[in-house]
Amino acid sequence: MGASALRVGGLVPFTANDFPGRFAAVVFVQGCPWRCGYCHNPHLQPRKRGALDWGDVVALLGRRAGLLDGVVFSGGEPTIDPALPDAVAAVRDLGLAVGLHTACIYPRRLEALLPMLDWVGFDIKAPFREYRKITGIDNSGDPARACLDAIIASGVAHECRTTLHPALLGEEEIEELAHTLAAAGVRNYALQAFRAQGCADKSLVAGATVGPAALARIASLFDQFTFRTA
Ligand code: SF4
Description:
The chain has seven helices and eight strands; from the N terminus they run E-E-H-E-H-E-H-E-H-H-E-H-E-H-E. By secondary structure, the chain is an alpha/beta fold. It binds iron/sulfur cluster.
């Protein structure tokens, strides 16, 4: 499958925030099989035809190669797309570094892709047995666990993230998850407060669940720890 088949749902031509240490473009891949209530990109969930043509995206990246030093593939879930490895290779051919945002859904595809990546930002949404209440999908913690192990084994630079939501995860569950992640080899961890903006589920109300004492205990488990508020 050639890169031209990549279903591109959107493009941010420049960001300094989504790929650490890089000025990057973000390519949003169309499609995700999970249905998290707090999803900020519900329009990217259907696996439909992309809004943009990959050829146009590559042409734009080529014109901006002097301004950019990286591209992040995000979603949706970018590893859903069989054309992703060819798209990653095309970006590397432009001399740009490649980052990936993934929700850890397809472990075998991710494992094959990791040698081509410079950085991975990945979601671990909850203790693995609790995944269904976030994603709406039975046993969705199993691929997440497998992806976590593959990322750590690869040695690729990473940031692991968990979104906090008071109705979905309590402080004890977050601390338990942080211990699991540290034991698995995560060195760079971020907790991000849920933001209601852009979320299709209007019954979810913004707010964080973790107090300062728990945050300090969690921070002590990792080499790098970030707490992002709305
Ligand atoms: S895994 Fe990510 S893109 Fe998919 S539904 Fe959940 S938050 Fe949205």
